[in-house]
Amino acid sequence: MSTQEEHANIGKVLSFLREWDRGDRTVRGRMLNTFLHTNTGKTFYELELEFAEVASLFLARLTTWMRLTYMFGTFLGLQLKAIGIFLSASSHDQYLIEFLEDGGVLTLLHILSHSQTKEEEKAEALRLLLTVSNTGRKYKEIICESHGVKVIAECMAKSNSDETQETAWAVLDSLSHGNPKYQTQIYKGLIAFMTCNSPKAQQLVLHTLHTMQSKMKTAHHSIIEPLLNMLRTLQLDVQDEAINLILDLKCYDVRPVLLSGLVALLRPAKEVQQHHNMEESEIIKMTGSLPVFVQQAAAAKTIRLLAEDNREVSRELLSLGVIQRLLYAMGNREHADAQIQASLALEHFVHTYPVIEQHVQKAIGGPLFAAFMHKADTLYMNVDETQAEILLTNKVNITEVLDGGTCEG
Fold first, then answer.
1. Longest Cα separation, the chain
2. Separation between Cα atoms, residue 295 and residue 337, nearest integer Å
């Protein structure tokens, strides 16, 4: 570009900035629309040529205007998109550093927290945060230092927009990679949001935790209770993510608590009453709602997958009385899937350990056992009230020492 052309360009840009400074919000909105139309997709060098090396002045004006007006929502979407042009066009850190020095990250987080911000504006703000995070470790740390994990996770949990939730998840996922200083903070923060009410957010949180857990040497004990509670969900994709995470945790220090928790879920709340003849008798009353029965079935399924995968884990489950509780779950005529999953899990143990076969046959009687051995997953269709009572009141107690193994895969 010749000197004459450079001077002409500088004059044009300075005129643009003067118009910007004198203009009201309507004028600025019109100018932003023009800017977006003519500059989207340009490289850093193209922007520098267009703005004759005063692009930074315009970026500073944009950032300041957004910081002062985002609470009113006026042209916020245009402001975010215009800033995005600068951040995505930069082939080095210049614009990004200037944006951060002007408090850009904090402003974006405030936008996410503001109750009046529209979903599409939140998604746009999250895209800018994703650009910042993807630039490198020091930028991830700036977001985390600004309590960004909590704000972004809250945004994901409370949003009813798939676009916002998925973009928030993308930022959290980005922050979880190559960010060792804040890895534990992110991990614990995600655990705290497992209890949110959004199935989509739950699925995304579980997926990220699943990825993070494989990189960590230990598992935090606070993960167990919310993880087991998530087995109650009626959303199968969320349940699958929860089960996958449980399978990952089998080789961490939380395993004993996790296994005992799973076995306990096979037996929902019971009431102990007395017969009129004053002889004590346990009357099993299935008091759980549908989510409790779904949780019972999911626990049985998870137990089977754990036992099939690892003989040492299988042995530990036996020591926790899993056989008696699986038989109990098989007697739950109020929920067929609980019966099916418990039958399939018991089938694995019976086929793996001959001594269990003998105990189970003795406890539930020949006819019921024969039906179980014939086709375990259809047994539930043939269990009558009397047989269900036999299953619910079984006293099977496996005490034999069985061969163990090592924790693998």
1. 110
2. 10
Q: How far apart are CA 56 and CA 61, in angstroms?
A: 9
Whether 85 contacts 39, CB under 8 Å: yes
* Distance between CA atoms of residues 314 and 227, nearest Å: 20
The whole-model pTM stands at: 0.82
DSSP for 12-25, please give it. HHHHHHHHHHH--H
Residue 42 tokens, joined: 């340009």
Residue ranges of E strands in 139-219: none
Q: For residues 345 and 26, what is the distance between their CA atoms, to the nearest angstrom?
A: 67
Closest residue by Cα to residue 186 from 221, 157, 145: 145
**pLDDT average, residue stretch 61-67:** 93
Name the 3-class secondary structure at 273. strand
Is residue 83 within 8 Å of 99, Cβ to Cβ? Answer: yes
pLDDT digits (tens, 9 = 90+) for 368-388: 899 899 889 888 888 889 989
Query: Is 360 exposed, middle or buried (CB count within 10 Å of its CB: 0-12, 13-18, 19+)?
Result: buried
CA 89/CA 299 separation, integer angstroms? 50
Q: Could you count the other beta carbons within 10 Å of the beta carbon of residue 277? A: 6
pLDDT, tens only, 171-198: 999 999 999 999 999 999 999 999 898 9
Q: Tokens at residue 87, please? A: 């951040």
Distance CA 301, CA 344 (A): 8
Q: Which residues pair with 266 in a beta bridge?
A: none
Q: Long-range contacts: 259-264, Cβ < 8 Å, 24+?
A: 259/306, 259/313, 259/316, 259/317, 259/320, 260/320, 261/224, 261/225, 261/228, 262/228, 262/299, 262/302, 262/303, 262/306, 262/317, 263/299, 263/303, 263/317, 263/320, 263/321, 263/322, 263/325, 264/325
DSSP for 50-88, please give it: HHTT-HHHHHHHHHHHHHHHGGGTTTHHHHHHHHHHHHH
Is residue 274 helix, strand or coil? strand
Q: Which residues make Cβ contacts (< 8 Å) with residue 108, sequence separation at least 6?
A: 125, 128, 129
